[in-house]
Input
Amino acid sequence: MADRNNRFAGKVVVITGAAMGIGRACAEAFAAEGGSVVIGDINEAARNETVELITNGGGKAVAVHCDVRVAADVQNLVQTAVSTFGGIDVLYNAAGVVRYGTVEELTEDDWDFQIDINLKGSFLTAKYVIPEMRKRGGGSIVNTASVQAFASQKTVAAYAASKGGIVSFTTTVALDHAHEGIRCNCIAPGSIRTPMLEDAANTFGEDDPEGAIVEWGRLHPLGRVGTPSEVANLVLFLGSDESSFCTGGCYRVDGGLLSPLFNG
Ligand SMILES: NC(=O)c1ccc[n+]([C@@H]2O[C@H](COP(=O)([O-])OP(=O)(O)OC[C@H]3O[C@@H](n4cnc5c(N)ncnc54)[C@H](O)[C@@H]3O)[C@@H](O)[C@H]2O)c1
Output
């Protein structure tokens, strides 16, 4: 059994969307367990802050500009991982966005924006990371779906479609690469307190965004929203050898949100 506090010693972990939120928490957690972390994000100030948090704590991390919609950016991210740390063992796709609206309200640009970042982004990273994993004799890919892949709120047609796409994309990648020791799983978080959730609370919470977050928390059987580090616990499990018999799966980290037949 691997040392649980050092599960990623000697491993190189590429994470998209690690400037903030769930991605940042995962970057810090992988680095705290010995991983060398390579961050791809569009937010320069925040991605550099994540690197500082890690290196100040004695960990190893670099960050590069990467818009996950752009193949050349993704290739540069992969190249940076290889030239800085020698290869890639784990890919965690956290980059994601949401824009609200019914299909009548959403523009074609809103649709493309969400599908391109949330779904095509995971295609592009897998496409360019898998050849590097193959050279290492295997690897683990973790994608980010959402409870919205299975059950939905109103006004998230494009977001929910992108997350449903992630679940089926994940199963196919798992099948295509199982024979070479490359695993692929995804996670389905419930409401997690991140800048994305806080933005939603500012939009829909009227004059009480904090109250909105408490209300959303009550919809989860555990009675609260989750934290990014609670999601990181699952991502690290799926990224590590502890999940060596898991591939093609979608794992909930949702405080029980999808369990009840009726709420209340
Ligand atoms: N927070 C939640 O409640 C929740 C629930 C379910 C699923 N998720 C999913 O978890 C993932 C992380 O969400 P979060 O809440 O941490 O969001 P966040 O907004 O706090 O962070 C998202 C990160 O993605 C980056 N990003 C955005 N567009 C990008 C692009 N084109 N290329 C590269 N990076 C880009 C942002 O700069 C940011 O660092 C997303 O895929 C989201 O859909 C979040």
About this structure: The chain has two domains: 12-190+227-253, 191-225.
